[in-house]
Known about the structure:
The structure is a single chain. The chain is an alpha/beta fold. It has 15 helices and 13 strands. Helix 8 (189-199) packs antiparallel against helix 9 and helix 13 runs parallel beside helix 14 (412-430). Bound molecules: 1-deoxynojirimycin. Residues 35, 38, 187-188, 328, 400, 442, 449, 458 line the site of 1-deoxynojirimycin (NOJ).
Amino acid sequence: xxxxxxxxxxxxxxxxxCAEDWTFPPGFKFxxxxxxxxxxxxxxxxxxxxxxxxxxxxxxxxxxxxxxxGDVACDSYNLWQTDIDNMKALGLHFxxxxxxxxxPRLLPSxxxxxxxxxGKRYYNDLIDGLLKEGIEPMVTLYHWDLPQTLQDLGGWTNxxxxxxxxxxxxxxxxxxxxxVKLWLTINEPxxxxxxxxxxxxxxxxxxxxxxxxxxxxRHVLLAHAKAYRLYDEEFRDQCNGxxxxxxxxxxxxxxxxDDEEIAELARQNMGGRYSHAIYSEEGGWPSxxxxxxxxxxxxxxxxxxxxxxxxxxxxxxxKGTYDYYALNYYTSRLVRPAKEGEELTxxxxxxxxxxxxxxGTRPEWTATNSSFIYVAPEGxxxxxxxxxxxxxxxxxxxTENGAPDLGGLNDQGRIDYYREHLKQVLLAIxxxxxxxxxxxxxxxxxxxxxxxxxxxxxxxxxxxFTDPLRTRTPRDSAAYYANIIKNNGLKADS
Length: 494
Ligand code: NOJ
């Protein structure tokens, strides 16, 4: 719906949508995000350990669109001060970044027997540099770069990883918790469990759709919960921060009005499977998905459900382990039951074979050069409303939102994407009463976009990857975003 039309409609309905209202509530925070493997480089600097993404890109370059890797990436390992200067120019209130490489830079062996001095120094410099400029650090403990040492022990399919993760979290909280008040334990478990194990095409490069996906799903929830409880028990009193987990939610919309049931099942499968245990009142898996998984497992000849059950203690451990909901939103899908014999493709972000569901897009959702992102701004508002309806009223931080293009400084497409999504976020706040407190643009600068290498550009800043200095240049969207931050909202005509 056009913005002017909303304003007109609101006026007719007597709702006071005037230009002044196009601002965000006082204190609303705008930020930008990145992730260690995608920007840092310095893959073997000092005593850093190897991560699964180092191993994957070095041994399987054919799985990366341009055969590239994150060895140097944006070289933020050396250029972090330039990054901070650029954030300052944007006027960012906070910067979301991840610790490397969660583990491998800080704990080269994966275990806390030894902590890298250079790893500590790097993150201390970055955090102190941000605070000096009044930019709040929001830290993700794990953004997909698992130490290879832990992968060799089974990685996310080994139940012990929940304790290994909590041990690592303790190190990070004790080193940085005096200055970092916003924590995210794990980034996008859907994309780190479902997609790698369903396809074998992302690190760690293991194809195990029946087992890997669901073991990873279960252990991520336990790892998150242990890290959250640990913060409560050992750090919250002195540090007074907030902890959550960042979920990637695609908004699944009924293809026709008869498809509402399967659309809700899709939401539960792709979002509920990573949220219900934490945010719902009863905890555990969503019951609709437990049922589907039991039936599917039986049909495949298994005597137990492939979705591994939680004990009642585990349900209690995980339930309520959040201080806010962290939502990464990029796109939407239509969904309907698959027809008899219809082919289903899972990768990238496609159909849902477990539900025998076919997905698609609306003609007006324009494609981007990313294989999975179609521009569907209304989805973010619908998603926010669904979260409130499903899990109740809670604080929500939008921890990622953004769109790619093929490069160039004139990025009107990205400006349009941000504008239309921000409008929908405003509607969610003002019309639906959703308590959204933060908005995070993905991403500060072009970086290593996983299987798409450097071919997909998401940055507010363009990065010249052929220049050894990795020069960063602001795009038009950088000026646009800086204005939004300065005005705490959108201008009537922009
Ligand atoms: C979400 C992921 O967290 C991030 O790493 C990725 O680059 C963006 N989506 C864009 O695909």
